Amino acid sequence: MTIHDWSFSISDPRSLREVLGTPPPPLTEYELVSFHIDEREASVALGFFSIGQPAGAGITWQEKGHNAVEFFLVCTGVERLSVEGWSTEPFTSVSLTRSHVELSGEGKRISFDVAEIRADAPIGRLASRAP
Fold first, then answer.
1. 86 in helix, strand or coil?
2. According to the model, what pLDDT value does residue 42 have?
């Protein structure tokens, strides 16, 4: 089975791959925790989070006790933004190509075209899941 390497859609995926691995795990393994539309910059920022140390977590992460990872993808040059439905249910599917992003979940779908997708370096976090 071939795993789709979504990091090829990022303009410079090195910082992501160094921490998350090559190829990084599928985006479905991360929780989409933030979605921000900035109409002034024609951009969309997507924030992802997951409990667990990624493949490339360094000794610093271990020394600090980081047990989670957070990273952001910034989509610029956004055009043809389409929002269908809205709910508090989480997005269950995130699809990236070099020029198209699609998010979907129960009762909702968001899609848009992009000129570029940039990634901030993943950040180690100390987290716990409350029962």
1. coil
2. 94
